[in-house]
Structure of Reverse transcriptase zinc-binding domain-containing protein:
Amino acid sequence: MEEIQRITGFSQGSFPFRYLGIPIANSRLTISQFSPLLDKISGYISAWAGANLSYAGRTELVKSVLQGVECFWLSIIPIPAGVRSKIIQLCRNFLWSGNCNSNKKPLVAWNEVTMPKSEGGLGIRNMKAWNKALLSKTLWDIQAKKDSLWVQWVHQIYMSNSNFWDYKVKHADSPLLKQVIALRDEIIASEESVEGAIQRVNQWTTNGEFQSKKGLRLLQKEKSQTRMAKDDKIQEFSDDRLCPLCRLEDETVDHLFFRCRVGGQIWAQIKAWLGITRAMQTIKASVKWLIKEARGTGLQAKIKKISLACTVYHLWEARNQRIFEGKIKSPEALIRGIQIQVHRCINSLSEAQ
């Protein structure tokens, strides 16, 4: 070592150290090592605290400046949940109160704030999904065996030229590689096969070039709630988790729309009315089937799309009416209401043409 230092003139360093502002370590980074990122975000917010900014102005600053600061880190290293939570807290406090330290209760849940504008959110990126989308660039480079020294080194040293999609993570592997393999396994589980996962990853490219924004959109689509979200104020008064329609099981998305005795009866009748024989057990599987089955702009495709939307709407309306108004609709009345609304929608579309 001394001879190398003498010849090269390099000084001897130690881990951790910082390169281009990013901490480099020979093991998983600790939360304290992310303090430069947290300090930078806090510094920006403190500088803006005296300005009389509207919610719209603060939203744009979070999206353009704060998330721009995060992006450099997110594209290089996995951000631990504890650090992610601190960053979200800083951004949330600034959005609703204009400073870092306010305990003002948020007006809207952060998960809803980070939804796309087309779905009712503010378009602020979901940090966890964006971190995964940016790290997916690393996944793409490794699985595509991109012509770079680092990718060649990973395949030669860690994978011994084995197939990326079959590789089993080892204890000695780097934290970044472990995170990439965990993301790979998550995609495989979501698509239910390696072939489906490969197809999904290939959708993240344009003309052979990886697009992180495409990865983000697809990752956000995979996010789904299995337990029905209830208003915070309602939850303060009630811990009732039972399905309001059947009162037999806990209320989840899939239970309410498919496994509930009432919901199941309605779906069976609507499917018979449409001539559909396929079993539907989850909302995710049903939407996937509908996207494939109801392609095009023909009448049958329109009827299937409208019928699914109307059935979900009427079940949700019946659920809310029972909770908030004490009204109970029979399955027969719900089915008639769905069929009437489908006919009205189809007639309106026909008249518009």
